[in-house]
Design brief:
Oligomer: single chain
Order of helices and strands: HHEHEEHEHHEHEE
Strand order of the largest sheet: 3-2-1-4-5
Helix content: 25-40%
Largest sheet: 5 strands, parallel
Distance between the termini: 22 Å
Strand content: 15-25%
Number of strands: 7
Length: about 170
């Protein structure tokens, strides 16, 4: 049995941003995330894994796996850029930084950054709320923050500019 992939509930939550759009996934991992993006209606997915050591080997219709961010530059613009490892992205330690992601976006595009919250007492790394907010707001015009927390299922709570109260999507 494969280990649970924490990005799958996040991708499901983002379905309205994914359907019919071109998506760049930064951090291919096993390829399950890219496959899920296609199942959620993405028109095309480019999934990159820095260092050329992509663990994603399967051929999935609608998905292009690339060994580094430079390979994605000629394939943009993207309607949605999803970053699986936000800590290295925000700190400029990955092949794609915030400024590069902004350049790859279509005019009405979105960047989603998944990052462990360093403000939690049991955090092992991660990025604090204000560090994340400051890094993103410096290069992107509109930043909204939300959190993902495990409980009998996965809950996603939107911070700034949310839809007015907790909403539960059992899908």
């Amino acid at each position: 049995m494969e280990p649970f992939d924490r990005r799958l509930p996040l991708y499901s939550y983002l379905r309205p941003l994914i359907e019919g759009r071109r998506v760049l996934e930064v951090g291919a991992g096993s390829g399950r995330g890219a496959e899920h993006l296609v199942s959620l209606g993405a028109s095309a997915v480019v999934s990159i894994e820095e260092g050329g050591s992509s663990r994603a080997r399967a051929r999935i219709a609608g998905v292009t796996f690339a060994p580094h961010a430079r390979a994605a530059e000629g394939q943009g613009p993207f309607d949605l850029v999803i970053v699986a490892d936000g800590a290295s992205f925000v700190r400029g330690q990955s092949g794609l930084d915030v400024a590069a992601a902004a350049r790859l976006l279509a005019p009405e595009g979105f960047v989603v950054v998944a990052v462990e919250n360093a403000d939690r007492p049991q955090a092992r790394g991660g990025v604090g709320y204000y560090e994340l907010q400051d890094a993103l707001a410096a290069k992107l015009p509109n930043v909204r923050m939300f959190g993902q927390t495990p409980f009998a299922a996965i809950g996603i709570a939107e911070f700034d500019g949310g839809a007015g109260g907790l909403q539960i999507d059992s899908g």
